[in-house]
Design brief:
It comes from Halapricum desulfuricans. The protein is of the alpha/beta class. It contains twelve helices and 33 strands. It is globular.
Length: 745
């Protein structure tokens, strides 16, 4: 892949497209109360990142505002505290700035760095006036009030370029589209194009006609990134990127790797993958690679394998999850050695399985050496084995002191400047991405692990600034154009789609809906709404989103259907949820044990706080979410269904992320149990029926729909009329059709 990232300089990243009043801010807290979208303006790391770089002084990176729109009073801030009265501690080493535009227009910033002076452009779009939380704007000539929550989602675009050799110019179409629920009209759509400020190409060389840009080839003397963002008069949509080559070539660095479109992802909680505690290590995982390959897994995600506090103690809260990193450059002793891990990766690659590493970099762990180096004096060891001593004094001379977010005041446990922690859990101190040395340390970890694995899953991705993710993704894509990035953002954010992540979680929409349907609390048709919501929230068509029904943080869907729902057959509910996840648009996903009904046959993990009233953990809600794998006893029919479902997904010409979703017309008396939809891939079309009920359900489909089920191979017809055929479906049925007819038609 062509290097177009300018990584040999300390440039401040790509241009930004924001709205007036939108804060580019990185608070010192990671929790629900302090925002889901963190960012700052940061110098990138020049050259190969070092694990233990020298600290930078404030004077090493100096920021200035060169140009602001008329009437603007906006300024740069080094360590603001925008949300409450707990002031952010600033040791004077913050090398990043934060910013809030106050007037529409273009802002130009300048960064003086050790290797020279660099510029950054920020374009701010107007924000419509609010009157008592009411949005007022012109809808097709009629001025009226619309509640802010009802203004619809942001627009989106997809850059497509071609080189016009005769004209000697690149032509870049932006293809902007309004959100499906937008209140604006197409005439309101505008697109702004800007080249990377580090490129020789200037904004004046980009001619914009409507929503199309033209760039003369003689203005492109090196691989050059061009960015664009849509604006519908109300909201700014996600930025896309295209790279123009001097020889007329074109690249799309903001696109997911193609292999993702036919991939089934499988998550493993490593220390529970064996049948008993202490049995699982990399050697055991390597032995099970053939099992994964036979099942049809394409990419396996391991939850954290690095040294951490929780795997080192008996009965840790939540199990030995490992989300408290002690060392970013090694593997945990109980799992084996780095060579053992490499052997596991090699075995996966030989079986055509990619490996996804769990990158936890919004916080580290209490036992991390760099964190411990900042502590000068501790109080007494608490009697509670799950608590940590108070910090009575800090070593402010530690070169790592500013690597962690802090508040100027003390906390209940710690002296000033007290740490801030991931969701106030002292085990997990927050990392400070205002410090360039810390950023380089984490980039070095990204560089290190990307030599071994094929993908990163990033824990609570909104807990890390966008500026870092952009830089980290470019680093891996320089080495491997097919390297994949998955963000855990709950709820999901379209801003993570801006040259940062290729694949996104969908917890609050798809997963929570699937659980509610499995419990019998919502109709299956709500799953279609969850899919539609992705476009309404502004995700472009090239975005890829996971269809997860379980993961290590959520209850097992079988457990919920059995313990909290009123489904007579919880295993059937789980099979139906998986069938929907594999046949609806998205990337299908399995959490280990789903294929073997682990919540029925596995060995549960017990909470260490089961007998305590003052403490609890998430295992008390579902003891099977991280249960030991049931390798001996399992439901063979259930396993066969999941195995066939994966094969069907791989063999089908319509399943996956790209074919259109159609709300196919049908009739049924079982609306609380049955989901019906169509998938349209052009020449190939299918009607899918999914049944959550414990007994077969009947559905009337249009008479043009074939009644032979492509999943089972059986003809499921039980009746017909002039305009319809009636089929009876046990769990999943897939029918061929030469046309689809939306229910709204």
């Amino acid at each position: 892949m062509t290097d177009h990232s300018h990584t040999d300089t300390h440039h401040p990243g790509p241009p930004r497209f924001v709205q007036v009043g939108e804060r580019i801010v990185d608070p010192i807290y990671v929790d629900m109360a302090h925002g889901y979208d963190r960012d700052n303006l940061a110098p990138t790391v020049a050259g190969t990142p070092e694990r233990d770089p020298d600290p930078s002084d404030r004077s090493d990176f100096t920021w200035r505002l060169l140009e602001t729109p008329d009437g603007s009073d906006a300024g740069l801030e080094y360590a603001p505290t925008p949300y409450d009265d707990r002031t952010q501690y600033d040791e004077g080493l913050h090398n990043t700035v934060e910013f809030q535009p106050d007037t529409p227009g273009v802002y130009r910033l300048e960064l003086d760095a050790p290797d020279g002076t660099h510029e950054l452009t920020i374009e701010a779009f107007p924000t419509p006036d609010l009157d008592d939380e009411i949005e007022v704007f012109d809808i097709e000539g009629a001025v009226g009030g619309v509640e802010e929550a009802d203004i619809g989602g942001p627009p989106h675009l997809e850059l497509v370029g071609e080189f016009d050799a005769e004209a000697g110019a690149f032509v870049v179409e932006s293809n902007p589209q309004l959100a499906a629920d937008a209140f604006t009209v197409e005439d309101d759509l505008a697109v702004s194009f800007r080249p990377h400020d580090a490129a020789a190409l200037s904004a004046e060389d980009v001619t914009v006609e409507g929503t199309t840009a033209r760039i003369p080839v003689e203005a492109v003397d090196e691989p050059t990134s061009l960015f664009a963002a849509p604006f519908d008069g109300v909201r700014v949509g996600a930025t896309d990127e295209i790279v123009l080559e001097p020889d007329g070539g074109i690249e799309y660095p903001n696109r997911p790797p193609e292999w993702l479109d036919d991939a089934v992802m499988y998550e493993i909680f490593p220390r529970s993958f064996a049948g008993e505690s202490g049995e699982a290590d990399f050697a055991f995982l390597t032995e099970k690679v053939d099992y994964l390959a036979d099942l049809g897994v394409d990419v396996v995600w391991l939850t954290p394998i690095v040294p951490a506090w929780s795997p080192e103690i008996d009965t840790p809260p939540g199990g030995p999850h490992g989300y408290s990193t002690a060392d970013y450059f090694d593997v945990a002793d109980d799992l084996g050695t780095l060579a053992d891990f490499e052997a596991f990766v090699d075995a996966c690659h030989e079986a055509d399985i990619r490996v996804c590493f769990d990158l936890v970099v919004n916080h580290c762990g209490w036992t991390n050496d760099h964190w411990q180096d900042t502590i000068a004096e501790l109080g007494d060891q608490p009697e509670d084995p799950y608590a940590f001593p108070d910090v009575e004094a800090w070593d402010t001379d530690s070169p790592y002191f500013d690597w962690f977010d802090r508040q100027t005041t003390p906390s209940e446990e710690d002296a000033a400047p007290a740490q801030t922690s991931f969701f106030n859990v002292r085990l997990q101190p927050n990392l400070n991405y205002g410090n360039v040395a810390l950023r380089e340390h984490i980039l070095a970890a990204v560089d290190f692990w990307s030599e071994y694995v094929d993908a990163f899953r990033c824990d609570i991705a909104w807990g890390v600034p966008h500026s870092f993710w952009k830089e980290a993704r470019r680093l891996t894509r320089q080495k491997d154009a097919e390297f994949m990035w998955l963000d855990e953002s709950i709820p999901y954010l379209t801003s993570m789609d801006e040259s940062e992540f290729d694949l996104h979680f969908d917890t609050t929409e798809f997963m929570f809906t699937a659980h509610a349907v499995a419990r019998g609390e919502r109709p299956p048709s709500d799953l279609l709404d969850a899919i539609d919501a992705r476009a309404e929230h502004g995700f472009p068509t090239y975005s890829r989103i996971l269809n997860t029904t379980e993961n290590h943080d959520e209850p097992r869907i079988y457990w919920e259907a059995k313990a909290e729902g009123h489904r007579e057959d919880p295993a059937q509910a789980e099979r139906a949820a998986l069938a929907a996840a594999f046949t609806l648009p998205g990337v299908p996903f399995l959490y280990y044990g789903q294929e073997r009904l682990i919540a029925e046959y596995g060995t549960r993990r017990e909470s260490p706080f089961a007998d305590r009233d003052d403490r609890f953990d998430d295992l008390e809600k579902d003891p099977y979410k991280r249960a030991f794998m049931n390798w001996e006893e399992y439901d063979e029919a259930h396993f066969a269904f999941v195995d066939a479902l994966i094969d069907c997904y791989h063999d089908s010409p319509v399943f996956g992320p790209t074919a259109d979703l159609v709300r196919e017309a049908h009739r049924t008396d079982a609306t609380d149990d049955v989901l019906v939809f169509g998938r349209d891939a052009g020449d190939e079309k299918r009607v899918v029926v999914v049944n959550f009920a414990p007994e077969p359900r009947r559905v009337q489909l249009r008479s043009t729909v074939e009644t032979r089920d492509l999943f089972s191979g059986e003809d499921l017809a039980v009746g017909s009329s002039a305009d319809a055929v009636t089929v009876e479906v046990e769990t999943l049925a897939i029918f061929e059709t030469d046309s689809l007819f939306g229910q709204g038609n």
